[in-house]
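Name: Adenylate kinase
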Amino acid sequence: MLNIALFGPPGAGKGTQSALLVEKYKLAYISTGDLLRQEISEGSELGKKAKELIDRGQLVSDEMIVQLIEKRIIASADKNGILFDGFPRTMVQAYILEGLLLKLNTSLACMLSLEVPREELIARLLERGKISGRTDDNAEVIEFRLEEYNNKTKPVADFYKDRNKYIPIQGVGEISEVFDRLVQSIDNTLQKVWFNLVLTGAPGSGKGTQGRLLAKKYNLYYISTGSLLRREIKAGSEIGVKVKDIMDRGELVPDEIVIRLIESEIRQHNNVRGFVFKGFPRTIVQAYILDGLLRRLDSSVSYCIELNASTIESIKRLNARSKTPQARSYDMNTELIINRLEEYNEKTLPVADFYNKQHKFASLNAIGDEKLVFERLSEKVEAAMKMLR
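Structure predicted for Adenylate kinase:
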């Protein structure tokens, strides 16, 4: 998801630019003021509570604000992300937003701050007051609002500067000029966001072949847990000795071994556009492990594609591979092949459901020659990349 916070003092042009950004990137728009007014207008329980507070001249609590925002995010699953206008406004709200997005398995890509000189802001707001008749657009209130912004909101800017997510944008100029600056900054940010693809499917579905082709085409780094483990076995390392017997029996290698190898591989090759994970995660537990690992690196799984081949087709392919130099030890035994297919159905199919619930999953027909399947797969990957951006 592309989640952006648009920052700036009153009169900086956040409302105008928000509308343009929402349209271009197909984002859901979240303004706490708009959300409150909507709830009050609908007469919801939250709206009634908020109205009572506002009528008494009190501020709506952060707890109530976060309920409104979470409700709106969940209702916006069909969008490419969220544009936050006017939130977070305090350090407390910045921590709230970080925790809320983490709970929803996403994060803030950047905070864009419209920088406009004080004199220009005052002139804009006074002019707006003449046209709109807004009671808060008079000289006395404007001074107070700007002072309030500087006192409470500057620490929020520092919060995101420390996380390398704060981007100042020159807010003076024609609307189109400011918009172009915002778009350029967003697109630059997206270039730094990893695209992480989980490629799943039963043994013999073609994950290895297609994963390598995808990595080459899209400048992704291919990570195969099987290849990592075989490398350790060939090197005769301590890990290799431990896992050889396990792999020969066609069983899954313990998670603590696999995750150490994957994390090391990611850290050694972090200059790519992202990663293709083949053979991991194979279980729900591993799906959570991968999420946690990527979250530590300020990333996440972008999409999961299942290569769908029939059991008969998988057996045929594995049998054919057993007669090549690429043969695996478990390809030589029909009983082991069947055991691996049963284990996939029991333990790995729930992983597809895990990503499907996050709207990050597609199943692909893997029957056909290598080129045809790759064309289908490329279409899915490009659609997923477009959605991410």
